[in-house]
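Now for today's protein.

===
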Amino acid sequence: MTAAVFAFSEDLAPATRLAEALGRPLREIALHRFPDGESLPQVGQGAEVAILYRALEDPDPKLMPLLLAADALRRAGARRLVLVAPYMPYLRQDMVFEPGQPLSRDVMGALLGPAFDRIVTVEPHLHRTSDLTPVFAGRPVTVLSASALLADAIGPAGDPLIIGPDAESAPWAQAVADRLGAGCLVFEKQRYGDRHVRLTLPEDAEIAGRRVAIVDDICSSGGTLAEAVKAVVARGAETTEIAVVHALFDARAEARLMRAGARRIVSTDAVEHPTNAIHLAGLLAGALEQEF
């Protein structure tokens, strides 16, 4: 049985780490863009078991080449095709919030599910979705947690206080706190549009003099996390750091967080960013060993 990890050029760094963790070769997928905007991937030598790694931040220009590459791998002899997408986009639109909107989660599932035999992802948005397998056309979806890796990156020094910026972050905050044997708090959040929020903590929360680590699954603009940092700094936190799984930072997010008072920002390499201090290769490899 032949097996290999396949990746596009912009994903070579994390895909290389995954291939090394699996002890399997890495094969780059060449991508040609025609003047009219169409894409033509070339997978080269195929494999019976093909692990296709694709980071799906900025998803729109990546999805069509991904689907074409999946077809090419099937035609090159893949009997087993697994998508490793550490960040899975469009899952936050998991219901029709206003008339005229799509149910984006289900559209993603209908696109990707039929193309693959299995999908592996890390900390997807599951606020109103208990199981992704039915969403992805019945294909098995393996959901991995990065909370232990976040906790290890934060570390127990100084008895950190783990804080989630909103109710949706509570599971990650509590899981990180449990691993560290640390205390945990969660902000109450009121949102006013995409970039304006109001955060509050209990008045009796003991913040002064503490090392505070704010954890979340996704950071995009950094607005919510920046407000969380400002709030704990105002309450006298000695140091404040941020740990996120998916660093979807826009161009100003990191600077916004540092100006707010964050001393340190760490993220996983699910999305490539200079703050990537946490590699997911070992976690992903553990979930993929059964394929060989």
Q: What stands out?
A: The chain is about 30% helix and 25% strand.
